[in-house]
């Protein structure tokens, strides 16, 4: 069915995670692994680029919640960028803009660190 | 005609045999000098009958004892030896006692008759038995129906034997000769049916080679000693000329058949070992294919694979090394070798094998392994010096998952045969690995389905059985669970006489974990909404939706995992003040349908469980709606707006609102069924991936609502009846 993949690109000490496809209860573990690998490597500055993500479900949102506490304890953050309107709406309904910084472009997110 | 088809009862066969024998015996004793033709014919027929009944009796004997080919060969040898003895005994001893035998035959006394009868009788039984044995050899391991060949030959034997009666008339000699020659030709043709030799083991072949030499020589000697003048022949002729003829035919048959056997066996000896191995391979492969489908325990099967692979590929030790994500290499089914040894050898071998040709079995010399291993190295070294190893890849779903490895001590390298065998075995092991994986998957799938059943059951019990009935409010609700249950929840709470609370919530994630959180929500909101207050009168109830959601968030902090959260809308209808108070914690917007317009209410608010600091409290907004006649409040979960059609398009907010507007003048039930009908139509043939919940609350003035209330209660009755 729907595919999802997450690729990581390092830019200085910031890791940019590119999300692609459908992020739901079935594909969430993929992103979970990606982020926990980054944390294992001590990379706490993460930008998630949503440009090619076409759908996110509640389980997908949960992935970000699962790690945010630990990341912020280590002076890091997850910043979100380049969401399409539909995905942004899902984040917005849940009040995520109150919890995460969401940017229009990846550059803006990177600069904020 | 087949001898087997003559299913006479055993008793009758014996009776026939004994009866005919006695009759002939009496005849021979008292009518010795009768040489008239009818008497001779009667004599020959009786002898034939005896031979026939003898064969009938012994065929049962051979079949009932299930005598194998080699013991039959042995029997033939013994009988030949007896014949050899008889022939020599007769020529020396009988001549000594009775003088010239040919004269004696024409004028015998009682004693001579007696002796000659027994002599002939022994020959008759021996020859019949040899004939039977030859018949058994003929049919051994024959795949096609070849009865006709043998039976034709047997008929010509009989014809040639019986026609020997005509020997007295030289002009009829040609009849006997013709039958005789045809018999010999048929013997030669039939003597090539010896495929049974191939199935003997090497040992048995060697024994057969020896026996066939001895038997062939005995047959030849007996045949040479049976010249016209020989005492043996004289006696037999005196008894029955056809028996004499039959005896020589059988001897010729024996000579031809056993010499063919001798040469064939001789040529089979060099390949006997290879044949043995192939036969073993075939039988072990058969055993495997049975095993693969029957044995579900992978380790059992792997153990058998290595055990037989050692034998088949002439190795000393074998094991299976599986690639494992956590351990790197997992050794199973190690035979004749310790686990530590296999680990150090495997690492070296797999590294080498992957450098060469991936995918096929590779032979690797272990010479370098011993050379390159410095003694000081801290790695454990196997005690046995293996010289060669052969590795074969195990595949599951076309991916290499490990290796079947066989090692040997001797310096003889693994040959192509060994490699082929090993490849076959690793194929079987691969199938077994795939099978065991499939089995695990299907067990997992079944477990998941059971889990979903439990989740659905939990959800069903938690949701309200029926909607509350109220004068000023008509309520419709629909809940459709998805296959992979989500965590949708809605409920109504009677806070006090004039207030009614309601909630709609969606737990993140799916399955049983979502269902459990949902069950927890039920408890939290029941108690917060004051259902308990009414019963105990002690607990304080929280009067505003905002307060209730703040409390719920605080309670959830204790139990909710970080990645889980809940979106919810909580509302309280005040019937007296005709007000609706609403707070939204991250849930889909609340739709208010009023005056043919849809208002999208999105008071701010974080989802429950996302944040446990003051931010939650600060973010949460509560709104108040002053209710007007026909105000319709629509609450839903994203299962509706995210319902997909076959093009994977969403049902969408826009379409949803359009349908609501179109049915704005309908009552709550009608609106809800219209929406559900549209969603179902939209997503036909597409499996529902999330729960669908829809709650419609329609405010109405008490005065003009006689009819509607009746309808509404009808609905309730219906629900109860269901």
Protein model, in words:
The complex is a heterodimer of chains A (113) and B (722). Chain A has 113 residues and is an alpha/beta fold. Chain A has one domain (4-111): STAS domain (Transcription Regulator spoIIAA). Chain A has helices at residues 28-40, 58-73, 85-93, 96-99, 106-112; strands at residues 4-11, 14-23, 45-56, 77-81, 102-103. In chain A, strands 1-2-3-4-5 form a five-stranded mixed sheet, sandwiched between helices. In chain A, helix 1 (28-40) runs parallel beside helix 2 (58-73). Chain A is globular, with a radius of gyration of 13 Å. Chain B has 722 residues and is α+β, with helices and mostly antiparallel strands. Chain B has three domains: 3-140 and 195-279, no CATH class; 294-441, GAF domain (Beta-Lactamase, 2-Layer Sandwich), CATH 3.30.450; 463-721, Phosphatase 2c, domain 1. Helix content of chain B is 57%, strand content 15%. Chain B has helices at 10-30, 37-65, 69-98, 101-106, 110-139, 147-162, 173-190, 202-225, 231-239, 241-294, 298-312, 339-355, 367-372, 416-462, 511-528, 531-536, 545-559, 614-619, 638-641, 653-662, 668-682, 706-721, and strands at 317-324, 328-335, 362-365, 388-396, 399-408, 473-480, 487-496, 499-507, 566-574, 579-585, 590-594, 597-601, 622-626, 632-636, 692-699. In chain B, strands 2-1-5-4-3 form a five-stranded antiparallel sheet, sandwiched between helices. In chain B, strands 6-15-14-11-12 form a five-stranded antiparallel sheet. In chain B, strands 7-8-9-10-13 form a five-stranded antiparallel sheet. In chain B, a hairpin with a 2-residue loop joins strand 4 (388-396) and strand 5. In chain B, helix 9 (231-239) packs across helix 10 (241-294), helix 10 (241-294) packs across helix 11 and helix 11 packs antiparallel against helix 14. Chain B starts with 9 loop residues before the first helix and ends with a helix. The chains are: A alpha/beta (113), B alpha+beta (722). Chain A binds chain B through residues 25, 57-59, 61-63, 65-66, 69, 93-96, 98-99, and chain B through 484, 506-511, 561-565, 567, 585-589, 602, 604-607, 610-611, 615, 619, 690.
């Amino acid at each position: 069915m729907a595919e999802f993949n997450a690729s990581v690109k390092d830019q200085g000490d910031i890791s940019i995670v590119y999300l692609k496809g459908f992020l739901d209860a079935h594909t969430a573990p993929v992103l979970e692994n990606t982020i926990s690998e980054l944390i294992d490597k001590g990379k706490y500055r993460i930008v998630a680029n949503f440009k090619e993500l076409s759908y996110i479900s509640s389980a997908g949102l949960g992935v970000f919640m699962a790690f945010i506490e630990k990341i912020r304890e280590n002076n890091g953050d997850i910043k979100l960028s380049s969401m399409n309107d539909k995905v942004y709406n899902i984040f917005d309904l849940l009040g995520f803009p109150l919890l995460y910084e969401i940017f229009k472009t990846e550059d803006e997110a990177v600069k904020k660190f | 005609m087949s001898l087997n088809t003559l299913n006479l009862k055993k008793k009758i066969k014996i009776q026939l045999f004994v009866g005919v024998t006695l009759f002939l015996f009496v005849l021979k004793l008292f009518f010795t000098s009768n040489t008239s033709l009818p008497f001779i014919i009667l004599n020959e027929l009786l002898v034939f009958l005896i031979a026939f009944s003898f064969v009938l009796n012994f065929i049962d004997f051979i079949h009932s004892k299930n005598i194998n080919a080699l013991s039959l060969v042995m029997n033939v040898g013994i009988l030949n030896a007896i014949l050899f003895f008889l022939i020599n005994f007769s020529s020396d001893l009988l001549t000594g006692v009775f003088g010239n035998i040919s004269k004696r035959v024409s004028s015998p006394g009682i004693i001579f008759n007696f002796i000659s009868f027994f002599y002939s009788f022994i020959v008759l039984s021996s020859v019949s038995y040899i004939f039977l044995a030859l018949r058994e050899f003929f049919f051994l391991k024959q795949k096609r129906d070849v009865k006709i060949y043998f039976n034709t030959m047997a008929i010509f034997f009989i014809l040639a034997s019986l026609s020997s009666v005509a020997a007295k008339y030289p002009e009829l000699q040609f009849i006997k000769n013709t039958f005789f020659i045809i018999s010999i030709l048929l013997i030669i043709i039939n003597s090539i049916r010896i495929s049974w030799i191939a199935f003997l083991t090497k040992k048995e072949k060697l024994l057969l080679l020896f026996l066939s030499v001895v038997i062939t020589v005995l047959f030849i000697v007996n045949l040479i000693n049976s010249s016209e003048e020989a005492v043996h022949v004289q006696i037999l002729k005196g008894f029955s000329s056809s028996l004499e003829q039959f005896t020589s035919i059988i001897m010729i048959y024996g000579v031809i058949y056993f010499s063919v056997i001798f040469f064939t066996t001789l040529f089979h000896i060099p390949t006997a070992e290879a044949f043995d191995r192939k036969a073993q391979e075939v039988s072990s492969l058969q055993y495997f294919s049975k095993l693969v489908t029957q044995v579900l325990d992978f380790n059992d099967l792997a153990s058998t694979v290595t055990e037989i692979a050692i034998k088949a590929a002439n190795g000393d030790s074998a094991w299976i090394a599986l690639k494992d994500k956590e351990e790197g290499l997992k050794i199973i089914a190690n035979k004749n070798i310790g686990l530590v040894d296999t680990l150090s050898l495997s690492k070296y071998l797999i590294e080498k094998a992957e450098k060469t040709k991936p995918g096929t079995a590779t032979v690797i010399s272990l010479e370098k392994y011993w050379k390159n291993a410095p003694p000081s190295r801290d790695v454990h070294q196997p005690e046995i010096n293996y010289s060669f190893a052969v590795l074969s890849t195990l595949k599951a779903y076309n991916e290499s998952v490990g290796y079947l490895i066989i090692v040997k001590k001797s310096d003889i390298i693994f040959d192509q045969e060994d490699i082929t065998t090993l490849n076959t075995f690793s194929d079987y092991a691969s199938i077994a690995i795939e099978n065991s994986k499939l089995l695990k998957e299907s067990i997992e799938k079944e477990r998941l389905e059971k889990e979903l059943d439990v989740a659905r059951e939990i959800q069903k019990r938690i949701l309200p059985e029926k909607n509350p009935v109220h004068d000023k409010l008509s309520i419709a609700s629909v809940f459709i669970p998805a296959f992979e249950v989500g965590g949708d929840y809605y409920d109504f709470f009677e806070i006090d006489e004039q207030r009614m609370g309601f909630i709609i919530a969606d737990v993140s994630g799916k399955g049983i974990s979502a269902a459990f959180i949902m069950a927890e929500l039920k408890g939290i909101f029941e108690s917060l909404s004051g259902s308990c207050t009414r019963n105990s009168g002690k607990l304080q109830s929280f009067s505003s939706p905002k307060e209730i959601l703040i409390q719920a968030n605080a309670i959830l902090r204790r139990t909710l995992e970080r990645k889980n959260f809940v979106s919810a809308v909580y509302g309280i209808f005040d019937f007296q003040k005709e007000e609706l108070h609403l707070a939204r914690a991250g849930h889909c917007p609340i739709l208010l349908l009023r005056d043919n317009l849809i208002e999208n209410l999105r008071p701010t608010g974080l989802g429950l469980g996302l944040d446990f600091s003051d931010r939650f409290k600060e973010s949460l907004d509560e709104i108040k709606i002053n209710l007007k006649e026909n105000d319709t409040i629509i609450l839903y979960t994203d299962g509706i707006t995210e319902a997909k059609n076959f093009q994977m398009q969403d049902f969408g907010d826009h379409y949803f609102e359009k349908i609501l507007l179109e049915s704005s003048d309908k009552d709550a039930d009608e609106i809800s069924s219209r929406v559900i009908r549209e969603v179902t139509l939209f997503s036909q043939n597409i499996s529902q991936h999330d729960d669908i919940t829809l709650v419609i609350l329609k405010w109405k003035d008490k005065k003009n609502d006689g009819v509607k209330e009746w309808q509404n209660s009808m609905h309730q009755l219906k629900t109860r009846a269901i």
